[in-house]
From TrEMBL:
InterPro entries: DUF6503 (IPR045444). This is Deoxyribose-phosphate aldolase. It comes from Algoriphagus hitonicola. It comes from the Bacteria. Pfam families: DUF6503.
Length: 249
């Protein structure tokens, strides 16, 4: 009887493993998303302030809306980026005089802040290509190193960017990231978590933002430069006044 029960359990384990066709990178990313908030990401509307600009973020697997509001010399500006495109209003009236270049620049700016604030949830966007580079050690801790690139179709203007994520082997938190980009002059950056805030079941992270001396440095050299102390602290990425409101859907 015990032998039969053991064989049944073993068969179920083998069946479950055979049914799970996810790549190793995908499994790690899924565990990281769960560790950072899981379903709360797509069941909440998030607000925060970043560099004196107020942001609102809503995102699910198939829809999103990011907005920011700020005051300048012309009045109250609101930018909205969603599945339908980009719209800017000034004092409540739509601005119709924006060039394609300006629309692109504003869209990238809004999207960039939302993307980093919502990490690692965005790593499961349809256009992402995830590759597991193995385990590594950084600051004495063990990490899974994940490379993320993008399909050209659906990957946006910056589809050729390359991202690296250091995801904790024990806790699955994203403690470091590095990325290369080609828009707006291009460059490469590395970010290190400096502070953590939790709200509404979501883990929000602030970062120290580093750059190398040579902006054409390959992104896969950023860890060794960081460990050697050869990166310059460029800025701090701090989210303030975070609010998370559950959505009733």
């Amino acid at each position: 009887m015990k032998k039969n029960l053991f064989l049944i359990i073993l068969g179920l384990v083998v069946l479950i493993q055979a049914c799970d066709q996810r790549s190793e990178a995908q499994k790690i990313v899924d565990l990281s998303i769960e560790a950072h908030g899981g379903k709360a990401f797509e069941e909440s509307e998030i607000e925060f302030d970043f560099r004196d600009i107020h942001y609102q973020i809503f995102k699910t697997s198939d829809s999103f809306e990011y907005s920011r509001e700020f005051q300048d010399s012309t009045g109250q500006i609101k930018d909205v980026l969603n599945n339908s495109g980009f719209v800017r209003t000034l004092n409540g009236a739509k601005v119709d005089t924006l060039t394609e270049e300006r629309i692109g620049a504003f869209s990238r700016s809004v999207n960039s802040v939302a993307y980093f604030a919502f990490l690692p949830y965005g790593l499961n966007d349809a256009a992402t290509i995830k590759n597991y580079l193995g385990e590594t050690t950084l600051n004495g801790e063990s990490y899974h190193l994940i490379e993320v690139t993008f399909e050209q179709e659906g990957g946006g203007e910056d589809f050729d960017d390359i991202f690296l994520y250091w995801i904790g082997v024990e806790d699955y938190f994203v403690d470091f990231m590095a990325y290369s980009y080609h828009t707006d002059g291009g460059g490469v950056r590395m970010r290190e978590v400096s502070d953590v805030q939790e709200a509404g079941g979501i883990r929000f992270q602030n970062y120290l933002n580093y750059k190398p001396e040579d902006k054409d440095t390959p992104v896969d050299q950023m860890q060794s430069l960081y460990e050697a102390g050869d990166l310059e602290l460029l800025s701090e990425i701090n989210l303030e006044n975070i609010e998370v409101r559950p959505l009733n859907r």
